[in-house]
User: Fold this.
Amino acid sequence: MSNIAIRVENLSKQYKIGARGLRYNSLREQLMDNLKSIFHRNGSTDQAESTIWALRDVSFEVKKGEIVGIIGRNGAGKSTLLKILSRITKPTAGSAEIFGRVGSLLEVGTGFSRELTGRENIYLSGAILGMKKAEITRKFDEIVSFSEVENFIDTSVKHFSSGMYLRLAFAVAAHLEPEILLVDEVLAVGDASFQKKCLGKMEEVHKGGRTVFFVSHNMAAITSLCTLGFLIDGGRLVLSGSPHSLVEEYLSSVRNCASIPVSERKDRRGNGRIRFTNVSILNNRLEAVEHATSGQDIYISLEYDMGNYRKLENVIIQISFAGVFGQPLFACLSRVAKDGVLRLTPGARILCHIPRLPLLPGTYTFNIWCKVAETMEDWVADAGKLSVAEGDYFGTGKLTTNVVGDFLVINEWSVQ
Amino acid sequence: MEQTPERVHRILIQPSKGLFHFEVRELWQYHELLYFLIWRDVKLRYKQTMIGGAWAILQPLMTMVIFSIIFGRLAKIPSDGLPYPVFAYTALLPWMLFSQSLTRSGASLVENANLISKVYFPRLMIPLGAAAAPIVDFIVSFMILLCLMAWYGIRPTLGILALPPLLFITIMTAFSVNLWLSPLNVQYRDVGHAIPFLSQFWMYASPVAYPLSLIPEKWQFLYSLNPMVGVIEGFRWALLGKQSPNFIAMAISIFAVLALFLSGFIYFKKMEQSFADVI
Assistant:
């Protein structure tokens, strides 16, 4: 008997996109379309629906007992791969073979019902995830003690704190004991101790000789936990190998990406009523600078193109910064600005003022997105980078070398 | 130590190749999930209500009172010599079971969108569970019927044994219709708006408020092709000792349901592959 757990051959998945693919269709729309196509029998121009390959010719083999970490930027196809392997959606081409019982954990709390009690939800969620009733009953006490919500087990989960909810939900999933476990970014939620618990459980699963396949943006978890790494980009499996080298490769590609001018980036999402065309860092005299220094007053300038629109109201912009290892640091959201929303007219630029930049020297990258009335218009990952050099943050004439962490915080000392 | 090789569970994932494939074994594997889905429906139905399960009784009971006043008293619709309230209530029970099965099952896939896009299990379980769950309401309101019959001094006959198959036909009819409608609803939410209307329309095409004898003789056969005609008349026959339903028409309508079931099954299996992408 072979020791292969998963074998994937030329797996591809195509999605239709555009206004029709994403929202649900209404019958009227469909009928109108059919009607239109009668009149335009010869010119089938608007019928050319745009499609994208979320996954393209992916092939690999995973042996039993491996922990595979999958990394890649948002929209690279990681989740699509997990969805196909967990049989939620069908591939367009290619095939995958899985040897063993599969448990998939694509979200924490699948099948939970807010109105039901903790006890009821353990059974319900367990059954939905594929456990037998007898199996749940047998593991019930273990699940409850893992979740640490013993005292509230007969309370409806809508009264749970989000932490309790997460712990209970994960506890059910963690006791699934499948031979192959597929996990999607579950660790991104919850506090540090919860994450630690999740990781511990996954290690335990691994020690039991089972295979784990997990997607994460947590590079530290990938390097410390995984025995094999896959790097996915643009729907293709670009690299596989030791998680360590893969993570380095990925992070340097992120930094390279941030050097491409925004206007040339094609991997963006959103409706496109607004497109960012240029991103730059300015000093307090609004002159572009190569790099900022700690403690400097800076502006992030976003230039944009709004097509034929004369005016767009209710605009919200976010700039979110990530650190050297891709870890999220902080975000500047325009919703908290004075009026809550921005009004845009053509030919202007958006400025985000960050007084007294509290970042330590290093290279940071940032994502930007823009929503108009809650719909995503443009979204660019790693749109730009912010290089920070040493500076006099504290105004004491001393540079900020040898400080641990990412941030600088004003602190005052005295002895009284 | 030699270990006997365990029977390895092998899953093959590939694009659908024209003909659907279907595993009875897998459905059986998940039969407990069906139970849990029904259980959830029942549990959630009357959560955060003041009178809870009493709604199951109140709905048919109030409808019966209104029907008795409007159709029985005012419109003076005949009830084949039976007291109108019993006449109507006996029909309302299977009818309400049917209409609830129909509407809840029709909306079920859309309501469970989060499950469909996050976890795998045979999708068939969702509309099936939703179609079967109203049986619990039925059982509760059936108790009231027994009281009502005792009040009017009507003794149940051995015909009561015919109830389980009649109930089965009722649920299967609602389920078969929804093998078509619930996937359609995933694609076109219009269907969700149309189902309550369909249910109302269907009620007037069934002898709930009036007796079958009111339909002109020459139309009766055609009329009886509606499976619910056979079920409702069957109920009145089984419980109240009325004349038996037209078994030939019933047999034909059962065949019609069977055809709807089989074709709907194929349609559902074909459509379910894109649920997660469309929903």
